[in-house]
Amino acid sequence: MHHALHDRLDLDKLISHRAKSIDASGIRKVFDLAAKMKDPINLSIGQPDFPVPDALKAAAIKAIQENKNAYTPTQGCPELLAAIWKRLGSEIGWTQDTEHGLSAIVTSGTSGALVLAMMCLLDAGDEAIIPDPYFVMYPQLGALTGGTMVLCDTYPDFRMTAARIEKLITPRTKAVIVNSPGNPTSVVLSSRELQDIVDLCAARNILLISDEIYDEFTFSESREGGRFPTPARFTKDCLLIRGFGKTYGCTGWRLGFVAGPHEIVQAIARLQQYSYVCAPSMAQYAAAHAYEIDMQPWVDRFEARRDMVMAAFDGVTEVALPGGAFYAFVKVPERLGLTASQFVEKAIARGVLVIPGKVFSKHDSHFRMSFAVKEETLARGLAELTAIMREA
Ligand SMILES: Cc1ncc(COP(=O)(O)O)c(C=O)c1O
């Protein structure tokens, strides 16, 4: 039998609605503009500017050389799981108890944890409440799972409070994602605020998912009695998602973990077994030593950079205090009469790259700038951005 030969397949017919529904045009436009810039002051970067600590590099190399390159158990290598439990035990009093309580699984990045958690919770039409502004992946988790991501507007203070969440709950709501310190705002919620969310979720049978990828990078005033505020201190019915990439500067190693209710973690493990299989082995063996490394000097340095940002915009425009991470979400002063996208074009014309709010939000009134750059670069960027605001 002969079939007509075509030059190429009709690929458009083959690509799923799911894949087509993912719109990456906002961020792509920013990167296209960036590619045309010569020597930009690049404040768009979403990862730390320090190299991976030597001890961690050495541990990864050692693992490879010792031939620890095979699949690890789906759940994660025992050495890393032991380090994670030691940390969770001392920090929040969580201990492994697979019979009625808590489990953990190592994942391919925090992203891997988020995808699997949502795959595990949402059927078509189920809802999850996410903050607006959001980490860019959150809304797309709807496209991936068939669920609906419901935006919780947190303007103008960027606090995702129980009162704001409660209004959005429906009989289909299964999960709430809280992200503190948050991307793109770096706002840190207080223990009081988190406890209210825990209580709300408990009363309405909703799983709270706490994306704590920036936990380690929480600044002095936002640590309560020196402690990072986490909802996990008030409940075991919460899915804790943490990562290693941002904390140790190894975002390319793709390593995170989920800890929480055993049944949910087991469901995530089943999904991981038939998708990612396991997280990268050398990264797991290396990260088993990560918590021995003191990152505080870098946290202090980021806090000082945060202070530079706040000082520069003081009296010029509004910035919600970044309590951690390394972003500031800066309001374009209303008197300029510009959307954030228009402001960003002006900034780019002056050699500064920042990201317009609409990439992370329904609104286009703010821009995200990263302070994970050298102080000298940051100072130049701040001088340009404030000059544009003062000119008008
Ligand atoms: C809030 C938040 N969650 C998750 C991630 C994904 O991190 P990972 O590289 O570990 O997948 C990021 C990365 O930017 C983030 O900002």
Keywords:
binds pyridoxal-5'-phosphate, 2 domains, globular, 392 residues, alpha/beta, 3-stranded antiparallel sheet, Aspartate Aminotransferase, domain 2, Aspartate Aminotransferase, domain 1
Uncertain segments of ≥5 residues (pLDDT<50)?
A: none
> What helical percentage do the residues reach?
25-40%
Backbone CA Rg: 22 Å
Share in β-strands = 5-15%
When the domains are counted, the total is 2
Q: Kindly, what is the distance between the CA atoms of the first and last residues, rounded to a whole number of angstroms?
A: 72 Å
Quickly give the structural class.
alpha/beta
Second rung of CATH, namely the architecture of the largest domain? 3-Layer(aba) Sandwich
Structure write-up:
Helix content is 39%, strand content 15%. It is of the alpha/beta class and 392 residues long. It folds into 2 domains: 121 residues, Aspartate Aminotransferase, domain 1 (Alpha-Beta Complex), CATH 3.90.1150; 239 residues, Aspartate Aminotransferase, domain 2, CATH 3.40.640.10. α4 packs across α12, α6 packs across α11 and α13 runs parallel beside α15. The longest helix has 18 residues. The model has no long low-confidence stretch (mean pLDDT 95). Bound molecules: pyridoxal-5'-phosphate (PLP). Pyridoxal-5'-phosphate (PLP) binds next to α6.
